[in-house]
Design brief:
With 312 residues, this protein is of the alpha/beta class. The chain contains 14 helices and six strands.
Length: 312
């Protein structure tokens, strides 16, 4: 069958973040959850994966927690080409029930947390271009697959993620009876901000204490060549045992190395913290967290409001 002009363009440009016709077309059709078209990856895309992997592997061995290193080996992530999600899921699903689920872009907050509850991890399928290996403001498949997914092989961590997904449903439940729409939106905005901060300082940028020191388990660290070393070695980084009061009121910014990080004792400890977060939510202690970053996107708030409206 002869190729159409659109098919030729899609194939030749690959799946580069910010410049992928396949993704643009999926978005124009309103498709959020998508299949991964592995045949569309260009050699430049695979080269980006290889360069990212080659650079960071020695730092994983030095700074990553042992569960992550075991996950990398268990999933048999290739070093020289972008892995297929179907292959990863065949290994991952029997271990913890989790699976990587391809997405075309931004996933509103409630949908994201609900995916965690269902043991699905929304996964970007594009990869950063070779001239932006050090920093990209939006997620890519290296961040999602090499940074996040190996941790999903660890049972206690996976259960903490599922429990965190439950918290989104709790937020909808406890605000659903508020008839004043402005007050309902205000409380949800505060709760979403608290949840986002908790997720940031644990799942994305969390540290873990151990008998031989502190190691990284957060995906934002584990997928960043520069920040992984900086987080564990720099005297400019404050590292503290996690405290719920501090975390939910602590603003963060995404466009520079993090100056403040928090550590947990174990993934059982992390699970207990998620349960504490939910208790505080039910007790109203997340209704008035400190203002500031992150800004709560209208799409995130609407996703919670509409989830509640659906059940009313």
């Amino acid at each position: 069958m002869p190729r159409t002009a659109g098919t030729t363009e899609t194939s030749s440009r690959g799946l580069t973040t910010g410049s992928a016709p396949f993704i643009e077309q999926a978005r124009s059709r309103g498709e959020l959850f998508i299949e991964q078209p592995c045949h569309l990856y260009s050699q430049a895309n695979h080269d980006s994966w290889r360069l990212l992997h080659e650079r960071i592997r020695p730092r994983w061995e030095r700074y990553a927690n042992r569960h992550f290193l075991k996950g990398i080996e268990t999933l048999q992530l290739p070093y020289d080409q972008i892995p297929g999600l179907d292959r990863i899921n065949r290994i991952l699903r029997p271990m913890t029930g989790f699976q990587a689920k391809g997405v075309s872009g931004y996933v509103p907050a409630f949908l994201f947390f609900d995916c965690l509850r269902r043991r699905e991890f929304p996964t970007t399928i594009t990869i950063r271009p070779a001239d932006q290996l050090d920093y990209l403001s939006e997620p890519d498949i290296f961040h999602d697959v090499a940074g996040h997914v190996p941790m999903h092989t660890e049972t206690a961590f996976a259960e903490a993620l599922v429990r965190f997904g439950d918290c989104a449903h709790t937020a909808v439940e406890i605000t659903g009876s508020i008839r004043d729409e402005q007050e309902r939106a205000r409380r949800l905005t505060s709760i979403i901000r608290a949840m986002s901060r908790f997720f940031w300082f644990t799942v994305e940028f969390g540290l873990m204490r151990g008998p031989r020191g502190i190691y990284a388990y957060g995906s934002g660290l584990l997928s960043s060549y520069g920040e992984l070393e900086h987080a564990l070695e720099s005297s400019q980084v404050g590292r503290y045992p996690i405290q719920m009061e501090w975390v939910i009121n602590q603003a963060f910014e995404i466009d520079h190395y993090q100056p403040l990080l928090f550590s947990v004792d174990s993934f059982d400890h992390l699970f207990d913290l998620v349960e504490q977060l939910e208790r505080w939510m039910r007790d109203g202690r997340l209704n008035n967290v400190a203002p500031g970053e992150p800004h709560i996107d209208e799409r995130d708030l609407r996703s919670f409001l509409e989830a509640g409206d659906f059940g009313r």
